[in-house]
Amino acid sequence: MGAIATEELSKSDKITGAMAEREEKILVLVRLRPLNDKEISKNEVADWECINESSILYRNSLQERSGLPTAYSFDRVYSGDCSSKQVYEEGTKEIALSVVSGINSSIFAYGQTSSGKTYTMNAITEYTVADIYDYVQRHEERAFALKFSAMEIYNENVRDLLSTDNTPLRLMDDPEKGTIVEKLTEEKINDWNHLRKLLSICEAQRKVGETSLNEQSSRSHQILKLTIESSAREFIGKGNSSTLSASVFFIDLAGSERASQAMSAGTRLKEGCHINRSLLTLGNVIRKLSKGRQGHINYRDSKLTRILQPCLGGNARTTIICTLSPARSHVEQSRNTLLFASCAKQVTTNAQVNVVMSDKALVKHLQKELARLENELKSPAPTSSSCNCSVTIRKKDIQLEKMDKQIRELTKQRDLAQSRVEDLLQIIGNDQSSNKQQRQKPHAKWKVQNKWEDEGSISDSSVNGHHRLDGVLAEDGESYIEDPSSRGVSDDQCKEVRCIEMEGSEASIGFGNGHAANHGSIGRSSHQNGFFYGSLEQRIQEVQRSIDSLTSPQPENPSVWDDAADASSSRSLNFSKTRVSKENYTNKEEHSETTPPCEVETDFNGRPGGFRKFAVLDYGADSGKLSRNGSQSSVGTEVVDDVRSEGGRNITDAEITSVQTFVAGLKDAKLQYEKQLGDGQVRPELRKTLRDVGLDPMLDGEDSTLDWSLQFERLQKAIVELWQICNVSLVHRTYFFLLFNGEPTDSIYLEVELRRLTFLKDTLPHGNRSVDSGRARKLVSSEKALRKERETLSKLINRRFSNEERKKLYTKWGIRQDSKRRRLQLVSQLWTETGDMDHIVESATIIGKLVKFSEQGRALKGMFGVSFSPPSLKRSSYGWMNGMSSLV
Length: 888
Ligand SMILES: Nc1ncnc2c1ncn2[C@@H]1O[C@H](COP(=O)(O)OP(=O)(O)OP(=O)(O)O)[C@@H](O)[C@H]1O
Hints:
GO terms for molecular function: ATP binding; microtubule binding; microtubule motor activity. The protein is of the alpha+beta class. The longest helix has 52 residues, at 384-435.
């Protein structure tokens, strides 16, 4: 394809047509080498045989009975008598030469030590470069410029192979180019001889050492990069030329090795460890990519994968040559190589033609594109974009239908609740009249309720799992109606009345709408609140179900744990089963269930003074105002008990904020905000902030409904980033993220959150200098609180995840199983990649499991019925309300 495509591209007006991305699988070749002299002298047997052009067979009859596969198929296999020229011509040439057409390409050699990687790569590099020069000579109509750079990764340090300076080079992240190696020499190539000379310098510079398996064993990963730029000569200097620019990478990996087989010690052993570790990361990345790129890919776990990211599933065409020794003694390593090759076969890349256009050419291209689009609009024939529109409309219709259904369902529930309220009122009325003569205050109940309306007290109604009703205790679905006066309950005590709980708490949530006037204070809870809590609860259960299914052990939900785990759910936490054999890819068992001694944990002395790790609303900035009411839910306490029992440390309840407290805080903030909106106190510039991220539901009205999903995504991104900037508690992020997943009714809560975070960000010490230093100090301290929170969460890992689950988690997150601080390492990674939504989803899922979002979610059911309190200005004591009040 390379040569043909470039010939077609010799005129710049043809270039733009070839710019589309091209998705294709990595090409995987297997090369078997002959037995070497050493192996022959040891009477080794060659157990592997290429039975046709694409299959390789393991012939050992003893192994055949072991249940392991004996035949493997790849794009192409080469037996020991195939020449390197044949491998190049039939296997790698087409992809390698894409580079002259402006398409990045890469050729890898992967395999155990002494299997023939360097032997193969040297030849492939030489043939490719010769063909490139041949191509350049045959295309005089184009002007070519070639650049060359070379590096090696030795013991996880990057070295410039074109420089005698051994100083390790740093990796930098460039927003446009991705990872770049700082100060790497890039030589402009004059001619073929010049390039040959540079290649021999690299060979001489590369770290090589003798092992028992290979006298000339490469001890580093070598990456050679040849960049080719070309432009059509006839357009050069005319302002409308375009340049094709692409690179070909030649990657000769160091070989995996078993210390026992390589008989390595000292320096060699250390090198071997580094080699194996980075190859393990490469294997993990390939395995993850082979499953369809869902979730977080650990490119950053090694320098090798960071540098090679574009070649692994990115903008490059890629070939991997896996080399094998046929000897029986290497069978395990050979099988590992073939497993790696099988995974690599599933990985797709998205290469594209890289064109650098001059301004003039760009304008010309855009004009053409515009004309094409105008034509498309005129012609009624179905096009891909109109298809997209109809798909979107269909999706919207389905969404609308779903919402309609929900509204009907909620209306039904509300009516049911309404009729129950009427029944209860009837009973209460009867009760009251039968006691009339004994009572001094004939309408005590109504009076109390009216008073409650006026004062809006905030004491919590949840006590030891019992919920106080109208002078009534309701326990687990059972309601008892009791006249307060008959128990001698005073008016003050009656202030604790919150609402009447129905048998099913869902039924108690929506009865405010349109009936408030008929039922005094009972109907005071607004329809909006009722609707919110109902849908919120439903959502909690949905979210919980997915968390449960995602984190339940294999036997209960095998599909989730399967290799092809629920591909339809992009939000799934894919704990993938490792298919790679133990030898190379499985790390050591975790030492024990108990917490291994580690720096972090020994530092932890119970609850430090003023430390509020789970300051959901306060972020540790104002510890005295965290707790909503001092009475933790039973769920919250259970979580704390778990923590407390970890290592016998003394951690108090206030350190875990229950989801109830969280939701109650949300509700308060919303009410406060609505009130401020009503009072016209919202500052116009803050309204603008909301518009900037695409949300202003209060102003946009109905029109915003259709755009809501888009707005939601933008807003969610902005909030996630602000959480990170403001060091917001991970538990808070998790609750918020899991609860608000895009329902239109979420908009107000997202708005409130964004406003709060914007305010917090503006008051960070490096931001608004006018903020008083005390406040700034408190905000800085939230960073410490976040660190502590991570520590505490990490201690829950052993309790919440089984041994097997933990192992999968560590592997998935690229953490060594034998690392002493593996739990902290895991938690430290959560919520850090704010631009990667899959990462965020996985982080929320893990923390949701750690804080037992499930039980808390279930407990909310009770809470919605009971602690449903009217708006109160007295409750502005939460951390975020402080922020809000200063804000507006
Ligand atoms: N296909 C082949 N035909 C003949 N000889 C080969 C072949 N492949 C490798 N060899 C020989 O085997 C030996 C080891 O090869 P090479 O150094 O390329 O292995 P390697 O995989 O790069 O090893 P390491 O990872 O230790 O660097 C060399 O002497 C090489 O010449």
